[in-house]
Amino acid sequence: MLKNVKVPLNSRCYDELFMSLTDKKLLSAGRYPKSSPVKFRGDSALEDGVSSNKPDGLVGGFYDSGNNMKFTFPTAYTVTLLSWSVIEYHPKYADMNELDHVKDIIRWGTDYLLKVFVAPNATSNQTTIYSQVSHMSSRSTIIKIFIVQLFLNIESSMSCLLLNSITKCDARLAVPIMMVMNKLMTTAGKDQKT
Amino acid sequence: MMYPRPVSKCDARASDLAGEIVAALSASSLVFKKDNNYSGELAKAAEKLFEQVTKLDPSEQGTYTSVDSCGGEARKFYNSSSYTDELIWAGTWLFFATGNTSYLAYATDAVRLQLAQSEEASIDGGIFNWNNKFSATAVTPIKVLFQFPIKDE
Q: Which end of chain B has fewer CB atoms surrounding its CB within 10 Å, N or C?
């Protein structure tokens, strides 16, 4: 019965759907698709799980949140749920012109899930399932690197926009800021080595 | 990225994690039905994983967060309370993806359903979420009844 109800475009329902799908795009890891409506994201985590016998490693999938960790369990759940919604309501997705969008996202997830499971083979007689990429212990480093990159980006690409507003182009204030940045960079560097 | 990103590894004993992956691969194989190769690849991987997981002795099966090397960290984020509901969920979707009734028999096994009910009904009020698929496992097979109604003899 529900399938006969036509969803009007530009409705709130449509906006919510589009935003929730875009949110999933926002959290995509790996070789980032150029077609994404989120323009400020790029490639990331291209080294995840890469080894000599797993050349494409565990590149791709979805980040859990801003902590950049990837969990397989909720990723699989998300793919199941999105797939179920397409199976039940694909005419509605098509009405809203979002069918290809949601299928793209599902495929992003399934491509990752296919990498996550390795059946017993010639080198190992055990089933392998990867449950997680990146650990909490990496988090303090991430925050430091994020701050450093933020400052570097602001300096180079945004022409001191924020830095100028903080310092009001006052050279006396710029020096302490540079010192904090320098300290953050050196401690972040130390964390990486250990 | 500029910092180490260690990987956590599990084996076939991580029944809930495997079950959810099987459900995801099976359901998505229906989404990509028009792309025969990809759809087949997904269903094949799902069947293989399901076989590896369900052939284990029940005493070896467990949740992925109960093994430190597998889900020790995930415990703080996505702790799984039990695995029976995920295995039933996997069997249900695998049946829809392949049409093989042995998966439906697995998913509708009375002993297994009762076990899942006793484990899940009290958690989060039995509401469907990433940790509790019990209510959803009751909804999906009803489709089968609509398509093949049970006739009174």
A: C
Q: Which of B9-13, B27-31, B98-102, B144-148 has the lowest mean pLDDT?
A: B144-148
Residues 104-123 of B with CB under 8 A from A: none
What is the DSSP code (8-state) at residue B109?
-
Query: Is A73 part of the contact surface with chain B (CB cutoff 8 Å)?
Result: yes
| A143 pLDDT above the threshold of 70 | no
pTM, full prediction:
0.80
How close is the nearest chain A Cα to the Cα of B71, in Å?
7
**Per-residue pLDDT tens for B39-74?**
999 999 999 999 999 999 999 999 999 999 999 889
Chain A residues 49-68 with a CB less than 8 Å from chain B: 49, 58, 64, 68
Predicted-complex ipTM score: 0.92
Minimum CA–CA partner of B90 in chain A: A80
Report the gap between the CA of A106 and the closest CA in chain B (Å).
7
Interchain contact B71–A (C-beta under 8 A)? yes
- Tell me, letter by letter, the H, E, C secondary structure of A24-83: HHHCECECCCCCCCCCCCCCECCCCCCECCECCCCCCCECCCCCCCEEHHHHHHHHHHHH
Please indicate whether, in this complex, the C-beta atoms of A79 and B48 are within 8 angstroms of each other: no
Name the token pair of A182.
Answer: 């320098």
State the amino acid at position B35 in one-letter form.
D
Taken in order A21, A22, A27, A31, the sign of the CA dihedral is: positive
